[in-house]
Amino acid sequence: MSIEQNIKVAVDAVVFGYTDNQLQVLLIKQKYGQQKGNWALPGGFVQDKESLKVAVLRELKEETGVEANYIEQLYTFGDDVDRDKRARVISVSYLALLNPSNYILKATTDAIDAKWHHIDDLPKLAYDHNKIIPKGLERLKAKIIYQPIGFELLDALFPFSDLENLYQTILDKKIDRRNFRKKILSFDILKETSKIQNIGSGRPARLYKFNKAKYKALEKEGFIFDIKLA
């Protein structure tokens, strides 16, 4: 049986960042085509001889100038056959996490601008990208409970209050700070440093760092990271 098929494969990246107690999404402004001038997720077509992950990392670098250390496949969008007016396009989306303070955005190739947008104040996006972002947020909210991926969004050194605020922001709920602190420190995957940060008019705060190597070693031994918040 012969099969006639003219389907193109694209990749799109839902990139979350965290600054000033706000969850942000990285968007690019389209440079060409019917969607010229509209905001969209970084992404593009997969080349014939590259993997999906290589394609999304390439597009992300080309269109925004950033390189994500943490990235995972999220969801495939293609049920709507008219999601892209140029052709029949299936998009494999990815979730990426990074600290915006580590990068200077630089839009090139298909993008005329790259900018962080607050998760609660997003513009109307090109294609069906307004449907892709909620999938990424859903994954982030679920996964931050059972894997320490939140540290990807923080500075290498951070006061403990930053970690508390990060969880409250992403999960959109108040947490019992005392129990949260006790739980996190019991995992023994944070290293307290000798460095101090002055925060406002309050007393100076000790800075911590995530011990990723120790977490990986514990994980191999069967350790389970589990933060369940009431």
Proportion of helical residues: 25-40%
Query: End-to-end distance, in Å?
Result: 56 Å
The count of helical stretches stands at: 5
Question: What do the pLDDT scores average to?
Answer: 93
* Morphology call: elongated
The major sheet is characterized as: 7 strands, mixed
Quote the beta fraction: 25-35%
**Order of H and E elements:** EEEEHEEEHEHHEEH
**Radius of gyration over all CA atoms, rounded:** 20 Å
How many strand segments?
Answer: 10
| Uncertain stretches | none
Summing up helix and strand content along with how strands pair, one would put the structural category as alpha+beta
Description:
- By secondary structure, the protein is of the alpha+beta class.
- The protein is built from five helices and ten strands, in the order E-E-E-E-H-E-E-E-H-E-H-H-E-E-H.
- The protein has helices at residues 52-64, 129-146, 160-171, 177-186, 212-220; strands at residues 7-19, 22-30, 39-40, 43-45, 70-77, 88-97, 111-118, 158-159, 190-197, 205-210.
- Strands 1, 2, 3, 4, 5, 6 and 7 form a seven-stranded mixed β-sheet that branches. A three-stranded antiparallel β-sheet has the order 8-10-9.
- A hairpin with an 8-residue loop joins strand 2 (22-30) and strand 3.
- The chain is elongated, with a radius of gyration of 20 Å.
What distinguishing features does this structure have?
230 residues; alpha+beta; three-stranded antiparallel β-sheet; 10 strands; 27% helix
